[in-house]
Amino acid sequence: MILDYKNSNIHYTTEGKGEAIVLLHGFLETIEMWKNIIPEFSKSHQVISIDLLGHGQTDCIGYVHTMDDMAEAVLATLEDLKIKKAHFIGHSMGGYVALALAEKRPDLFEGLCLMNSTFEADDEQKKQLRTRANEMAKTNFNNLVRLSFTNLFAPESKHKFQNEFNEALQIALKTPLQGYIAASEGMKLRPNRFKVFNNLKAKKLIIIGEKDGLIDGASLINQIKNTEIDYVNFSEGHMSHIEDKSDLTYNLKHFIEK
């Protein structure tokens, strides 16, 4: 389905009936990443999956897409669907977008799962890496995406899940250059939202991959001690929907239904 938003298109799908679940994909991903999750949860819930700005079939609206910009686009979609309350599951960048939305509209949240994601801001080293990547993207986009994508998986997962890896890589390579740079610039600008997450009056879960090279799971676990934020440790990397599929489905069901 397509929503007209600021003279641009937002692409989303909605399947099933019942309480709402909103799925927000990560950087270089699309709603395709949820293809195994949606059938499972749409049996008992309305499952809404949204292509974020500059990804999939959703247009770019600028040369910087802040997490707040993306959250506003998500909000416009949910308002069009008349969603009053939902469980939100955000993978990586999708978690950053969900947190930006939680800051604006905490009343929307029945629960929030940060899946291979974080409430922390980029440190200076990460910001510099993004800046260099954006420069490289202008002249060597394909090689950059291939290199970036390899780092998302635990070393053995690239071979164990070779078909899924290649399929996800092909989707990533279709990301428009403007979408890549705009999202990357937006991620650099995001603030630390620990207080937003901690103060949210909703169920809260962080899914951590033991071999995730992008997210410092130990740091997150240390920061959420003595809070109402739960966490689950999986054995593999950043792509839990591929690398830890059955564990992910089980834990998301438990999170939504508890």
UniProtKB/TrEMBL annotation:
Pfam families: Abhydrolase_1. This is Pimeloyl-ACP methyl ester carboxylesterase. It comes from Winogradskyella eximia. It comes from the Bacteria. Residues 20-244 form the AB hydrolase-1 domain. Gene3D superfamilies: alpha/beta hydrolase (3.40.50.1820).
